[in-house]
Design a protein that fits this description.
Blueprint lengths: L3 H8 L13 E9 L5 E3 L2 E2 L3 H9 L1 E4 L2 E5 L4 E6 L4 E11 L2 E8 L4 E3 L6 E6 L2 E7 L5 E4 L1 H10 L1 E3 L2 E6 L2 E4 L3
Parallel strand pairs: 1-6, 7-12
Antiparallel strand pairs: 1-2, 2-3, 4-5, 5-6, 7-8, 8-9, 10-11, 11-12, 13-14, 14-15
């Protein structure tokens, strides 16, 4: 059995030193991420998953705007909601207890922890959980995953929750 830190390290994506990168804003690219998490360039869907993953690896959000950020340039793009969607999940056992692992639409796995909490936000008039990701990004929980969680959620006076890494993450406001 692994510790929570060992599991997080094993799943961790190569981290970019965004804080050290201070490039000048270089304008905008006609890249749009729609509400389904699909990426488009000048209206054409980007179908090469390797290209989308490359762009996603340098995506960050600063002051309510999304950028592709490298050491030498920072280019704004358009994101209609959250750039990623949680499409699958599983529990993993660690020394600290059961941890919820969420899989996004790019097949990356994220742990639900205090550092990456679930927060409930409005999406098209409904309260929907979002997983907070590094560098200001987030992933909206898909409807099918939300319904699966609703079936296993526990309840207390505050509402319905999923437990992960010893913490309660509420599915309602």
């Amino acid at each position: 059995m692994h510790s929570l830190n060992e599991l997080a390290t094993a799943l961790e994506q190569p981290s970019k030193p965004f804080a050290q990168w201070q490039p000048q804003h270089c304008g905008e690219l006609p890249i749009v991420i729609n509400q389904q998490g699909d990426w488009f360039y000048s209206g054409s869907k980007i179908t090469r998953i390797a290209m989308v993953k490359l762009f996603a690896s340098v995506l960050c959000k600063e002051q309510d705007a999304f950028y592709l950020k490298t050491p030498i340039e920072k280019i704004a793009i358009t994101v209609h909601d959250a750039p990623f969607i949680i499409v699958n999940w599983r529990f993993e056992m660690t020394e600290q207890g059961q941890v919820l692992c969420c899989v996004d639409n790019l097949q990356r796995t994220w742990l639900v922890t205090c550092e990456q909490p679930l927060v409930v936000q409005d999406y098209q008039g409904n309260d929907v959980p979002y997983l907070q990701l590094p560098y200001g990004c987030s992933a909206r929980v898909s409807r099918s995953v939300f319904y699966q969680w609703a079936e296993i959620a526990q309840a207390d006076k505050q509402g319905y929750f999923i437990q992960s890494a010893g913490q309660r993450f509420y599915l309602n406001v």
